[in-house]
Amino acid sequence: MSAPCRYPRVPSLQAMTLRGLITSSALGLAALTVLAEAFPSVAAPGTGTREARPAITAPPVAPPALASPPVPDGPAIRSVKVRPRSPVVGPRGGTRLVVEVVARGVAGPKGVTLRVEPGGRRARAHAAAPAPVPADASGWEVWRFDPPVRLTRWYPAGRWRAVATAKDASGRRATASASFLLRKATVLTGVRVARARKRGRAVRVAGTLMRVDPTGRFDYWFFPRQRLTLQFRRHGGRAWKSVARTRTNRDGQFARRVGRSHGTWRVVYAGTRHYAGVSRTVRHRAHK
Question: How does strand 263-269 pair with strand 278-284?
């Protein structure tokens, strides 16, 4: 009888399963250890802390350049001022003007030039001031003009212009102007206040209005057909009160009766675009 065949012993399913689980657990722990070393950002459970991850850096950016101060785009004129603002000329002599121009961005001693003209007609061009005075740190300069020619009675009365032109080194220009009124003088002569007859306390205010002779033959001549205002102020008072109006005749004379007497009288001529205003004050004390 032959010996029985012997087969290798196969472990039981229960033993093999337990061994496999132990082996699998050991391999899993080894794998987790390797992962933890490769990614140090993974925190160990229960520690309550988190390691910093490597920062993600962006490519460097150059800082913005500092803004340079604004450069004026060519010459500029900020203001043109004329003194006196309303010149008045009499029969003799003349009035001298002073013009101040505030400009920047100009070049050379003739960077700013000035001309003074009546209305739209050119009268005379004046050279630039030789030495501008710095106005402030932003580059503005004051150019002061003192024209050698005086305005006299022989120049036309009315609106005039002072036109300033600024020029830089490249030839660019800027222009600005200021207007003013040139007027001729007027005078009130022979103004008197007298008690009107048979009018109780009424008085008569009379006189003559004259202007610089437009023909040039005399210093002053009669100023016809002009409106005048009569004002009154009581003795010791301060406020003037307009009480009547009158008009000059063809010889420049006027006369008006009014119902007040004891106080101070003033005759006022307001003037026109071509002739300056004027006033004259006369005190009157009523007689008993």
Answer: antiparallel
